[in-house]
Amino acid sequence: MVTMGEFWVTLTSVVTATAMIKAYFPPHLWYYVERFSHKFFHFFSPYIEITFPEYSGKYLKRNEAFADIRNYLSTRATLHAKRFKAEVVKDTQSLILSMEEKEEVSDEFKGVKIWWELRHKPPPRTQSFSFYGGEDEKRFYKLKFHKRHRELITGPYVKHVLAGGKDVAVKNRVRKLFSNNPSKNWYGWRQRKWSHVPFEHPSTFDSLAMETKKKEQIKKDLKKYSEGKEYYAKIGKAWKRGYLLYGPPGTGKSTMIAAMANFLNYDVYDLELTTVMDNSELKNLLIETTNKSVIVIEDIDCSLDLTGQREKRKKKTADEAEVNLIEKKLKEESESKESKVTLSGLLNCIDGLWSACGGERIIVFTTNYVEKLDPALIRRGRMDKHIEMSYCCFDAFKMLAKNYLDIDSHELFAEIGNQLAETNMIPADVAENLMPKSDEDDAETCLKNLIEALKEAKEEAIKKAEEEALLKAEKEKDEDKCTCSAKKNIKGDETSAKPVKENGFINKDDKGGEN
Ligand SMILES: Nc1ncnc2c1ncn2[C@@H]1O[C@H](COP(=O)(O)OP(=O)(O)OP(=O)(O)O)[C@@H](O)[C@H]1O
Ligand SMILES: [Mg+2]
User: Fold this and answer.
1) Whether residue 414 sits in one domain with residue 284
2) Residue ranges making up the domain that contains 32
3) Ligand 1 within 6 A of CB of 260
4) The 104-109 sheet, strands edge to edge
5) N or C: which end of the chain has fewer CB within 10 A?
6) Which superkingdom does the taxonomy of this entry point to (predicted)?
């Protein structure tokens, strides 16, 4: 602790020195004499000062510690300082107060008093030009403490400040949704690997409709992972976790990813593999991702085979002949795009990334067709947890009803439960039916709409099943016919050596026999 005596001695010396300078030296020398006198007093001062510049190094790289200190002091400044600089973050939801220049803030650590001050270096006396901005960018924090506490302050205290600052940054940060840019733009120039927009997806686990037990399991899993830094270090495993989300379209896979990111307070990197040129570019992209992020590869089954497969799949339900044509065209297109990411490249990147970087990342693959995926890709260790997103169950419906209509129960719930047990309907369709379409639509109207939709879906499913059964029967009949005529032909062959010739019809398959 600084004694009052020491404080007064220092203050008196500074005041006296300043008065002497002003009295005995002409104004143009004040600056130099002041600097000299400061050095002189520092020599005898019992205090140590450490500065943390905003920019450092040859290329004036932004100093991470400066930002951490600023964030840490924003929590201390509100207690002690009188002048603040205010910054509004998170869409006007929170206000950060940081100390103004030359304002001093005191802090206490294990009973020891410490002073912080934000200063900026005086502009150079000579005229000069800088690539790195003006005075504003030469700011630094000055940390002052008594020399007898050197070890405590330079060690544990500085660590405490930097960690505290990081925590504040995480709390106040506006999270980002990154997407990867094509390696070269249309005029052939290389561009930034990732571009970003604020991540503002409102999905949470509360609004996500799925079986309650399953949802709780996932939340616990994420929590355990996010708090498991020491545990992962102890077992010698990189701090990461892979999730595979699979299920039909519209069952909430993308919604779940947003809920995960919101739950963990992570950024999201949406990696579009089809625009990645090759394995090494993929590696660079992954290495550039930051901690506390969810890396997402949607429709992995399509991406790995590279371009356009999702398009293909959609068209497959249409006319077969047309499909073949489309497939051929898409294949040609994909080849011309020359994207050369391979399965093994992706596996290496994932494994390499986890071992090379700091961890604290989640990687999520989604697919509509889990059976298409290579087992190597989704084995545990890469995709640790496999989550099936399925058709809407009663539990999920109740969540949607609560979310969309603000009701926990209704006499129509029982009927909806029965209908859902007999009909497959994706949560996206259930949600759409539950959504009021006008101000006149109350909860009952929406529930009735849903019942109607469920009945229609059921009828459609029955009709489709009947059509399929009919088609199957016809096919079997045709096959039977073929077998019969083939048998007849064989019989005919046995009785007559050349039956085709006798009919005056030359069978293509018999040409060989003709010769
Ligand atoms: N389980 C769910 N809970 C809440 N809303 C859901 C759920 N599933 C789907 N929805 C609603 O349906 C919409 C589509 O869902 P989403 O995009 O998450 O489906 P998906 O499984 O990712 O589909 P795809 O396989 O086509 O990408 C969402 O915007 C959401 O409103
Ligand atoms: Mg999706």
Assistant:
1) no
2) 1-45
3) no
4) 47-53, 139-146, 112-120, 104-109
5) C
6) Eukaryota
Structurally, the chain folds into a number of domains equal to 3
Distance from the alpha carbon of residue 300 to the mean position of ligand 2, in angstroms? 11
For the cut 90, the answer to whether the pLDDT of residue 368 exceeds it is: yes
255 C-beta closer than 6 A to ligand 1: yes
Mean pLDDT of the chain: 78
Whole-number percent of the chain with pLDDT over 70 = 67
- Cα(419) to ligand 1 centroid in Å equals 21
254 in ligand 1 pocket by Cβ < 6 Å? yes
Same domain, residue pair 243 and 286: yes
Q: Which atom from ligand 1 is nearest to the alpha carbon of 257?
A: 18
* pTM for the structure as a whole: 0.66
Cα–Cα dist 429/209, whole Å: 12
For residue 210, the CA-to-ligand 1 centroid distance in Å is: 11
The C-alpha atoms of residue 312 and residue 292 are separated, in whole angstroms, by 35
| Neighbour tally for 119: CB within 10 Å | 13
Asked if residue 30 belongs to a domain, the reply is: yes
Q: 392 CB under 6 A from ligand 1?
A: no
Q: Is 68 within a domain? A: no
1-10, 61-70, 203-212, 443-452: segment of lowest average pLDDT: 1-10
ipTM topping 0.85: yes
- pLDDT tens string 146-196: 989 999 999 999 999 999 998 888 777 788 999 998 766 555 555 678 999
Nearest CA to ligand 1 atom 7: 252
Ligand closest to CA 435: 1
